[in-house]
Design goal:
Elements lengths: L14 H9 L3 H35 L8 H7 L1
């Protein structure tokens, strides 16, 4: 039975040091890193959008903001 261990370490490096390390990676690992970062950025954008929507709905419930009708929303598209 194989067992695994997970190691989490915080390492403080400068941006230029990070760039230097990335430049040393083989091309396939650079592509893998870029893909990972893009997915992470997309997730953060989605979460941010959801948070903004929830805040807007909460403001509307308090009567501080008037929401658009579904028709007005569709007309913008």
């Amino acid at each position: 039975m194989a067992t695994g261990a997970r190691l989490n370490v915080d390492i403080n490096i400068s941006f230029s040091q990070l760039v230097s390390v990335v430049r040393q990676l083989p091309l396939n690992k650079k592509k893998e890193l870029i893909s990972f970062l893009q997915e992470d950025e997309e997730k953060l954008a989605l979460i941010s959008g959801i948070k903004e929507a929830v805040e807007e709905v909460n403001l509307a419930k308090k009567g501080k903001v008037q929401l658009k009708s579904a028709r007005a929303f569709l007309d913008e598209l």
